[in-house]
């Protein structure tokens, strides 16, 4: 019954609304709208939401008025609250960082204590060995084997009509050049600011970086000068050529000589020396020797700065004159810094005494060439202890023997008991390699070969 009454009520309501619609006159300003119940519900919810948003500002305004009546600035209070929140956050972060630092410090201290205990034990063991740590040995067996490999190698840039002995000389020279290249790179890495190498990686750029370190007390160098008229730079032409050759950068040395104004006459001499592997013509040797004599006369008269000595050394190398080289060793005994520099210079100046034509022509001009035998005789004037510092560096002497192509004496010396370590096994291996290449007896006089071979066999027996 209740349902029937409800339906009757809804029917009456619908009938009344229909009559109102029929009676209402249409209006141009307000067109008729028709909505169902779902649409009416959605519109009512939307209207309610707008009403709530409109009430919020009124509440904020009321709160602001209340604070104003109490003499408080609402905006300033809001800023103070925001600042307080930030300070609280910062204090919390700072506290967390400090706690983390304390934890890290405790962990580090624990770790260091654990490390120090093994370190102390190692120190006790090391001290008990009573080792002499005054300095590392300059020559190791590994370095000697590197030299052996260089002696056996060939230089494809040099003509092949050279003797086996000169091929060994050139191999020894290449070994010293490789060692100097490592020295140059170590210097650059140890002094990066002074070297100022930057992104340049060419060979000549490395040499110039090396010269910035070596000549740092001489002022502005020519390749770094921006205005040569305002501040005349130091001319490093001969330094660049010398150290390019010393490091094995032959093409760069030739290019520096070609492009420099002060070395134009030297350029063809250097080119011939490089191309022929040192076996220059008598005319070239004579021209270089004449320039050496001129430089030495200037040294005797007024003296020259140290960097001009490189010009003297370069011309002496090309001259290959025994008389000039003996004079340099006699009058300028401190011109070389290391034994490697000395041996490289001497090996560069050595001429092949087996080449008869060049030798005879040189002798006719009074320019007896410096031979490998001359170098060996000079080195053999000193006792082995001179090279090994009384046994502290025992492999230096056999190293010098190998560099001067005294191969058989070097093997015999290694077969003896030298130093604290025995090298007899290495001497056997080196002898086998040299014999296999057919060079074991090279560099020894014919009268010495048989006696040395007998001595070697006795030591190896």
TrEMBL record:
Pfam families per record: Nic96
Main subcellular location of this protein, as a coarse class: nucleus
InterPro entries in UniProt: Nucleoporin_int_Nup93/Nic96 (IPR007231)
GO cellular component: nuclear pore
One MF annotation (Gene Ontology) recorded for this entry: structural constituent of nuclear pore
Keywords: Membrane, mRNA transport, Nuclear pore complex, Nucleus, Protein transport, Translocation, Transport
Keyword flag Membrane: yes
Domain of life of the source: Eukaryota
GO biological process, one term: poly(A)+ mRNA export from nucleus
Keyword Hydrolase annotated: no
Cellular localisation: Nucleus envelope; Nucleus, Nuclear pore complex
Similarity field: Belongs to the nucleoporin interacting component (NIC) family.
Name of this protein: Nuclear pore protein
